[in-house]
Protein 1
Amino acid sequence: MTNEATILNSTQSDQLKAEQLKAARQARYSPGQSAHQFSLYLYPLLALALLLLVNVLLDPQFFSLQWQDGRLYGPLIDIVNRSAPVALLAIGMSLVIATGGIDLSVGAVMAICGAVCANLLVLGDWSIPAVIGLAVLTGLACGLVNGFMVSYLGIQPIVATLVLMVAGRGVAQLLNQGQIVTFQNPDFAALGSGSFLGLPVPVWLVLLALLIMQLLLKRTALGLFIEAVGCNAKASRYLGIDDRGIKLTVYLLAGGCAALAGIIATADIQGSDANNAGLWLELDAILAVVIGGAALTGGRFSLPRAVIGVLIIQALSTTIVVSGLPAKFNLLIKALVILLVLMLQSELFRNQLKALFSFNKLRGGKA
Amino acid sequence: MSRTYLPLWITFALVLLMFGAGASQFDGFASLRVVTNLISDNAFLLVTALGMTLVILSGGIDLSVGSVIALSGVAAALLIGPYQWHPLVAFAVILPCAALFGAGMGALIQYYQLQPFIVTLAGMFLARGVATLLSEESVAIEHPFYDAVAEFGLELPDGGWLGATSLLTIALVLLMLVLTHYSRFGSYVYALGGNSQSAQLMGVPVARTTILLYASSSMLAAMAGIIFSFYTYSGYALSAVGVELDAIAAVVIGGTLLTGGSGFIIGTVLGVLLMGLIQTYINFDGSLSSWWSKIVIGGLLFFFIALQKLLSKQWQSKAGGKA
């Protein structure tokens, strides 16, 4: 090949170069994706489809959509709408987990940002964009604290974010002085319960966040750097990647996403409850990211799959309600389904299942 | 002072510092009563954290312990109350069941190569779900055995009192100390946490150790649930929420690395004592409202971890310079 290349004349070698360049461009590494994309999407989507199928069997009206007062209504819209806060958390959490970290504080950050919104709205002389801006800034500041502890102080992520998880709820209670702060502001409430072009506003916010993040990851080198740091932080530092800066960035983004989730949750109930806002939602977000096939050890992630994971969790809750079982079964069923979804991701289990089915076929054939 | 024991000494120094700070500010802080109360108030957390240490040493994590505490408490209360079992018989059934539960999680982690964080998170939902299913309301325990246990204890001078549960906790600490540092199983755990692949190559029975590990963590959590039931005289499905995070924090403050392979049981004991001391200090102060205590605990958690990090880094760079 090299011999051939040397005897080519200049125009031919130019052509060759152009072709190589084109091939290289097409083969460009795209972060958050892999060669066996299809199978990575297959199992989460299969699980979601299965859950929706169960729902339809339980309730034939499940897929029905109604157009009323300029917006769509229906069980499906309900699921998507209720998923919004956790979906936002999961988007941020995906990035953190991709670097091999974890963020336990997002629920508490939601509570803080909610408290900031509610208190500013009660004061009254703040415009809504300013309130939103300040809440997002608060979230970013929380992310900065987490990121600083993880990347520059070298504290293990679970512990570093545990600090804010414990202290954050205290800060939110301090802001609210231990009360549930409620406000009357239809414009702000629309962020949680309003609609735009037929779909609920929270859904649009999730789509917007997903779009911006995806662009940020795919059209800049950020996604590649995040995966590199997640695979091997030391090696990527030797390559010249600012691994500390990348880690700081993902915690910042997670804080920003948590702030948006907090805004939605606060707008939805038109008040801020420091004790319960976002309580244990960090676990749901982590779960969603893992159901979406990300590795907790870092390096492998996908935002759309994490959002599918959130939809699975929310669809499951709806299924339990639709099935008419008493509420006390909720956690148990959730645990069992999650175990099943996790098992389906294990290759060994899938092979065992296959072996089981082929064994049955074999026996059937003999009989 | 070798580098291995450094985090341990730092935590020990911080415990002394915290105790000194309390003793210098409040009358009656430096008494045996405070110390024994510290043990009995934190007995269930300490027992849970012992199991957590083992799991973290192996490089894993167990998020299900808080729910297992609640589940074993509810199960004990139901068996003793409505079903009229003798408490000891109930415990004899509950503890092996908990071990089986932990072994199940260990098996999933080992054989299906699932991540411990997620498997035990599912275990957390499962145990809490079963507990809620058993009873949604708090179940009170009334039994002569519980009264007898409550009266049993060692009277110490200076108002100190070591109750039966405290004595049991101390015995468990000693047992775990021997098991972790002076038994074959203990060295297997350290080997796993260091590098599971090399452990396998060295002939460590990785599967058996992993399963045993999670089984003992769940069993210790169930033990903690029983101790908790002696403390509250009841079982409630929503009790002990978030205890797993306290236990993890205690283990980490005690100097055990979350990545596994390095740490000590005694460090965890110190970690629990330190967290308990912070709480005692806040109680003694009395002027802090509930949200301030959360913020202070968070702040102190950060302070201790950062200090530990800083000191050990300084020490290491000094030692490196000398060598």
Protein 2
Amino acid sequence: MEILRYTIYRFGTMLLTLLVVSVLIFIIINLPPGDYLSNQIAELKASGQSAGVAKAEFLRREYALDRPLWEQYMIWMGFMPGPNGFSGLIQGDYGWSFEFDRPVAEIVGDSLWLTVLVNFAAVMFVYAAALPLGVLAAAKSRTWIDYITALIGYLGLATPNFLLALIMFYYGHKYFDLPIGGLMDPVYEGQPMSWDKLQSILLHLIVPTFVIGTSGASAMQQRLRANMLDELGKPYVETAIAKGLSPARMLTKYPLRVAFNPFVADIGNLLPSMVSGSVLVSVVLGLQTIGPTLLTALKTQDQFLSAFVLMFVALLTLVGTMISDILLVMLDPRIRYEGREA
Amino acid sequence: MTQLPDGRYVDDAPYDPEASLRLPERRDLDAPNWLLIWRKFRKHRLGLISGIFLLSAYLLLPFAGFFAPYTANERDEERLYAPPQAINWWYEGKFIGPFVYPTTAEADLETFQWVFKPDTTRPMKLEFFCRRGSYKLAGLIETDLHLFCAPEGATIFLLGSDRLGRDVFSRILYGAQLSLTVGLIGIAVSFTLGILLGSMAGYFGGWIDWVINRAIEILRSLPELPLWLALSAAVPSNWGPVAVFFIISIILGILDWPGLARSVRAKFLSLREEEYVRAAEMMGATSGRVIRKHLLPNFMSHLIASATLSIPAMILGETALSFLGLGLRAPAVSWGVMLNDAQNLASIEIYPWTAVPMIPIIVVVLAFNFLGDGLRDSLDPYDH
């Protein structure tokens, strides 16, 4: 019951946060002077094409861009009825992309799921890589295993994501014959899901997952190692060894379970940076996630598209953080009653 | 040596039973705090080396133009994508000092690339303290003196030349000026905001604390890069490079403060209840004075260490933004701008030297990390 109450509470705070974030995003999107349509209208008028002007003016009215900013926000979010049935985000109408001249929903389409998939894979990779490496480095601290993992960790932290992407990309293709670019073979694009398509996606996921996850995995590995070292110095570990527990069993049974907590809690800090990384890496590797879409939309001031993508990215991190918080409460009863210190 | 009545022997030399306890610690008890920190920091080899490296790098920044053989945007139209050249010392078994071979460009009609052939019959000596393209020393003094440059008719592209025939090595030196300072300005912004808001939240508590805390939570839960992108996309494209540079570093700083503010707030919460704070308040000190004189000095050193650790994130941030074309723009030279050229696979495969700016980035980021780790470990000199 406690869990359920906490989940509901956490969900509520997430919604509130999302609301604040939407205001923030709306302000940022409207910071540059002018908007896509008024720029276009000015351009068309300058070159004397009146047919385009009429269409742009029509779109401007259709999407309420001629109203005051706060009204625009309310209409965009769907709190206020828009003109001619533009119903806003919360009713699933994401608006119109002026640059691509299609509805936003149509443009982002599949890429939303692929974005979730890429980030999920990266998070899994972080855990899969950081857990054994961190435990190993702590158990064999001050040996060459420790130093080598530390070196790899530092390099992973210091190499810019996008460069790692390019390097992996190049050598992955050259030596391991990994596919280049995209998230699936072009053959499967727009096809319904099938076994072959899934295989193709998985094969294409290897490089991006590795690239996006590396810096997160290094950070997490270092933290896990430090936590484990703290635990390993404690008397109960000595007792366990003295009583003749095998090292592997001793490690997994006691210190690991204590050190595991921050490991889960950390995902809240990790996720925003991983999503950031995935946007950047997607641009470099040409993945069909929303990263490249965001970049074009921002560069061309395509406001509905960029606002939606930003909202989606924020939602993704907020939901991820919420899930990690709830998992943490289930994992550690102490937190349940004290509440998590912010 | 005297013999006691009960038969034991005792040394006659004067003996103070507490001397041995006092002696080794005497030095440490008298030493000022910074000396203790320095002593401990010195033992952190990697941190020390990184610190010296970064210090010298920053000190040399104003003189980048002097060490670079070319100026930042000087083009050699004849030699686009020229590969790195070596400096030779020995010619036909004789030592004649540093020299280069002049190169001639030939078009390879099969691959449609320029092939640069060194003419090994004509060694040409490098010139030192020579006068070439003019630049501004430290941004102020106009001069044209270079440490070394290529003799007339030859080129010296230590790390090759880029798409427009500009020297990669010189550009790395010039790029360091922007890439390294962007982190400093960003951290100054984030430091000011973080300390101000964090101390307000921790000291006053109540609704101020609540509002600031929520702001921190929200900003921390958002992915940075998309916000950076959105903010930088809002920078008008007709602004000059200097204005763009400042606004980019401020943007980097604006999104970085929550982490710092959170640790400041946590420290304040625990220190606020100390007796000396209450004493100061009762003697009529204003809140500002209590915060500045009594609370902040307690953990200033910690803040400096954490600031050192967040500079690399800003350097990487600038690189990423410029790389995507939303950060610094073309006439300005930064490592990210240079890497923009290496954006596609083809250029990495055919002209790998265009990706060289990644090496200084990695080295600098690593150095900051090591320095920060060293500082953090040595800042508590009393803690053993």
Protein 3
Amino acid sequence: MTKSILLVGVGGQGTILASKILTNGLMEAGYDVKMSEIHGMSQRGGSVSSQVRYGEKVMSPVIEKGKADIVVSFEKMEALRALDYLKEDGTLVVNNEEIPSMSVITGEETYPDDVLEEIEKHVKAKVVDATRLAGELGNVKAANIILLGTIIKAMGLEHINWDEILKANIKPQFLELNKKALKIGIEAVE
Amino acid sequence: MKKLMTGDEAIARGAFEAGVTYASAYPGTPSTEILENLATYNEIYAEWAPNEKVAMESAIGASVAGERSMVSMKHVGMNVAADPMFTWAYMGVNGGNVIITADEPGMFSSQNEQDNRNYAKAAKIAMMEPSDSQECIDMVKAAYELGEEYDTPFIIRMTTRVCHSKSIVELKDRAEIQPKEWKKNPGKYVCLPAIARNLRVKLQERMEKLAAYSETSPFNRVEMGDTKVGIIASGICYYYAKEVFGDNASYLKLGFTNPLPANLIKDFCYKVDKVYVLEENDPYIEEFVKQQGCECIGKELFPAYGEMTPDVIRACVTGTANKTMEFDKTKLIGRAPTFCAGCPHRGLFYRLGKRKDIMISGDIGCYTLAAGKPYNAMDSTVCMGASISLGHGAQKAFKAQGLNRRVVTVLGDSTFFHTGINSLINTVYNKSNTVNIILDNRITGMTGHQNNPGTGYTAKEEETTLIKIEDLVKAIGVKHVYVIDPNNLKEVDDTLDKCLALDEPSVIITRWPCVLKKFSQEDRDEFDNLFATKNKVDADKCIGCRLCLKAGCPAMSYDAAAKKVTINRAQCVGCDVCTQVCPKDAIVKED
């Protein structure tokens, strides 16, 4: 059965690297894997998403609405936006991070203070303070690897040798930090 | 060896394995990464051309001289390259030649949606459509073999989801290909009318031979399953269909799609009760199926625009959309892309948008974002290079109407080299007085930082002659040329005042590098203190007027509780635009 993982966030949060590591690990584990991303204008502070699908034989690289097994959002508002994609019994992981968009900065719109409450009305979200935890590790940019850890745990992928995959995809000077980040992510969800 | 590759990476890999030695392109989403990857192979000479027409002609030249060549472009790039391409089809190849078009159903990063399969048909060029990355490799390799056998260039039609989706590929070794000998052969390569008439006959014969090949091509295959529904699909739609119908349908997967296999299609249609044709954009296959006298369901049920993802197919076939969670959509805030903190376009557009009674004729690049809030500083965008020429026509029209309305045109450095130069020649030659702004951020920005003739480096990062825009526009005959710092708002205002008062054409070059650029030594020498400082808000002086926020910097935000603006230290690069906007001098440099 093909599994579908949706990573969403804001341009610059590291969703692409997280999905690259994820897909490489899945391939090494012997799965057929497809991933789809939209590049281009969305890089400039817009919403971004990476779609990962794996299984014995994957057909579409694109996840249908209402069919994602797990949605991992690197930002609160983007979690709400992606709710359409989550299966009824799917898992939602939300990084407890709020990034104002330009319409909020210029005062045209207000970032609502009850985004998590709105999400919780529909699904029990696993809220992770990935940005704060990464900051405590020494680099807020490692939040993406913490969130990758939550996917590994939620999808039961701990048997894959992630340390090796990290080593192949991350610069040596950041490797230890990211190994720790991954472990924090795995332990952050039951 | 197995590897996960995007379709773009796989096209480059296929070219490498096929023994390609020459590649040219102009960047354009979603095709850009093809040439970027080609440039990483030592065995391939790869270059950025100023536009797609030049890229096409250069690739033709390499083919005529006996090498296997590739040219890649986004869908709208093929409009630019169409002129040489149509006659190239008559000539036929020497070394194989593959033309990649990357179409954008859904327009993620494009100004239109066009189905370039129509070009293959109109130009009478053989075409294939890959569905995943492995097929990208296989089809590129086959295109060189078949192209040399049948004496034809090949078009490979990709779409965004094929270009930017990763799937697993098997890597093979590079083929050792000997260059073909070049011999004088005007009967093949000089398209005079008398010669072209002969070539036109040969072209017809070639297409007939290719139509016969298409019937047995391994890229056109039947997969029989349940015969109640038969699906004819090409490209990514094949996998979308498999996702939706699985084993509950039979499939005719078409990979070799010009010419289409008439008999194969007819045989398939006879074997199934009902035929769906699944293809994004135009009814290219559907019309052919119907011409063969076969009944099929196509655009009367499925959309003629946008992506045809599995949920779209499912909704069309079953009449109901997938079940999704209902939530309060009023809680959503928009998150449109925006200029980065430190973007050199910010200062210019912040001031330009405040001008009264001007029309701003824009172009294709990051700066097209200036059309939106808070700048509202763009009134038209059509295609690459159009800003200057469209603005010229508008200025002449306003003048004829007796209006004092002025036209300001805006385009990037790479866009100017692409096709803006011709437009500026027109403006000078035809005695206009538009104000033409060239946003020289020292790189091709939007597509992810490719070198261009103004950067002084090639696609392979080798040093080359740097073409100075100010010298070029002076040579064209522009007498009023100003090079300014767009982060200096007074300089922006003063220069605009001067140029708007002129009765002759002017060029303003706003020179400051893209904040995301990897700076060259020349950049560091030319620009002082390049993004090396940070600004902060002096809370005692800030009155919370929020005027600075109208400059649209993502590093700034309003603290409603404190009624003060704050600057995100991690994002600020000290461009100082906000400093000049603040009426209370409350924004200062960090110590």
